[in-house]
Amino acid sequence: MNKTDYKLISLALIGFLFFQAILVYYVRITDYDEAVFLDVARNIHRVGLPLRSISPEGRLYFIHTPLYLYLVSASVYLFGESLLWTRMVTMMFAIGSIVLTYLIVRREQTAVSSFVAGLLLALNTFFAIYSYFLTMEVPMMFFILMAIYLLSREGSRPFWQYFGAGIAVALAIMLKELALVFLGVTALYVFVFGRNWQERILQSVWFVLPTIIATIMWVLWGINLDKSKFWAGTSSWLGFVHGANNVAGTRNLQMLPWLNMLGNNFYSWGMIILFVASIFAYFIWFRRKLPQIFWLLLLYFGFATGISFFISIKEPRHIIALIPVVAMMIGMLVDWDSVWRFVRTKPMRLIPIMVVVLLLAWNISPFKIPPKAQWEQIESWWEPMFSHRIFYSQQYYSVLEDTGHYLAEITSPETVITVMHEGPIVGYYADRPNYFLYTMKYPRVLEVLRDTEFLVIDRQVFFELSSEEIDSVMQYIENNFEIIQILENQGRQVSVYKHQ
Known about the structure:
By secondary structure, the chain is an alpha/beta fold. The chain has 2 domains: 3-30 and 62-364, no CATH class; 385-499, D-Maltodextrin-Binding Protein, domain 2, CATH 3.40.190. It contains 21 helices and 9 strands. The chain has helices at 3-26, 32-47, 67-79, 83-106, 111-123, 125-130, 137-151, 159-175, 180-192, 197-235, 237-242, 255-266, 269-284, 293-310, 322-333, 336-345, 347-364, 384-410, 423-430, 442-450, 467-480, and strands spanning 51-52, 59-60, 250-251, 313-314, 417-419, 434-436, 454-457, 481-488, 493-499. A 5-stranded mixed β-sheet has the order 6-5-7-9-8. Helix 19 (423-430) links the parallel strand 5 and strand 6 (434-436). Helix 1 (3-26) packs antiparallel against helix 4, helix 8 (159-175) packs antiparallel against helix 9 and helix 18 packs across helix 19 (423-430). The longest helix has 39 residues, at 197-235. It starts with a helix and ends with a strand.
C-alpha cells in the first residue's frame, strides 16, 4: 500500500458515500425488516432473549442464525434507539467491503486494476441501497470478503491463515446461514489446491473447524432456549428452497424474469457487459496467468448463480456477495494498466473512451438517463429502486410511524394491537406487542380478531385467504369494530379501529 492506493481507495469511497448521503437525507423511518430487527434488539435488552413482540408472551426469533440480532442489539446499546446510528453500522461493513475488494485485487494486480474493482462495487446501485439499511447480508458479505482476502496470498500459507479464514466464514454463517454456500465452495477450493494429501486434509480441517464449533454452540443455544421452536425455525429454511414460504422473496420466478432482475436491479447491464467484455479481452489480448484466488471467485460465482435458478424463493440480496466477486474478476481479467497507457498516449483516444466509461458508470450507479419527456421529473433521473427509496419510502412508512405513536398514547403497555399488514412497524413505534393478519389462515384470523381491542387496517392483503374468506373477514370487522382515528398523508391512509 502506498499513497496512490490510499488516494484511489478514497476516491472510490467518496463515490459510495455520495449516494449514502442522499439516502441519509431522504430516508429516516424504519422499513419492515428493520422494524423486526430493532424490535428483537429491544427485547434482548429488556428480557435477555431474542424475542419478537408477537402476542403477549412474544416469539423467539429462530428464522435465521442469531449473530446479527446481537450485533443490532449492541448497536442499540451503544447508540440508543437511533435509527441513523444503527444504520451506520451497516455502512461501516459496506465501506470495509469496498476496501477488502480493493485489497484482494491489489495482492497480485496493480493499483489501477484494484481501483476498477473497488469502484465497480462502490457505484453499484443494489449495493448502495442495502448498505444503508439494517440488513444481514452486508455484514455477511464483509466476512466472506475477509475470508477471501486471507486466502488470496499466493504460495505457501501458514495454517493460521486457513483457521482465520474459517473464523471469518463462521462469522458470516452466524450472521446469515446463506454463507453456507460459500463455505462449501471454499472448502472444495482449499482441498483441491493443497500441494499434497496431508496438506489438503490439514488445511481443510483448519478451515471448517470454526464453523463446526460455531454451529455446535448455536444449536446448543437454541435447544436450551426452546428445543421444539428452534427446530421448527431452522426447518423453515427449507421453505425458502422449495417455495413453501409464501411471505418472503419472489416466489417461483422463472429463469428469464430472474435473469432480467439480475441485469436490471442487481448487477446492472453495464456491469454485465463489462464482465463479458473482460472475458473476451482476456482471451484475445491479455492472456496471462491469473491469480489462484481467481478460481475461487469463479467457482463461487458459478455455483451460487446456478443454485439461484433452482431455489423457488428468489431474493437478489441473498447473493449480494457476488457483486464484489464479479467486480474483482473484472479487475483481474484485464490488464487495466495497459488499457490506461493505451488511452493516455493519444489524446484523441481519450475522449471516446471517457464517454464510454462515463456511460458505463452512469448505468452501474443509481443515476439514470430518462427519456427527454421525463427530464423535468427529478425521480426519473434515478434508478427505479433507488428512486422509490428516496422519494416514496419515507412517505409510505411515515403514516405507520404516526399510527404507532398514536397507539402508544391511547393504549397501556400490555395492550396487544392487531395490524392487517405492517405489524412490525406499527408495533415497533407503538412499543406494543402485536399480531399481523396477512400471513394467517382464516380460522386464526377470526380467532385473533375476536380477542382484539385495537385494530389497524393499513393495507388489505391476505396471503392465505380466498376472496370469499377476505369478504367474510371484512364483514366481521365492519360488524364488530368502529373507526376511532384515520391517519393519512399524500401516499396512503391508515384506519385505527376499536372493538365495540
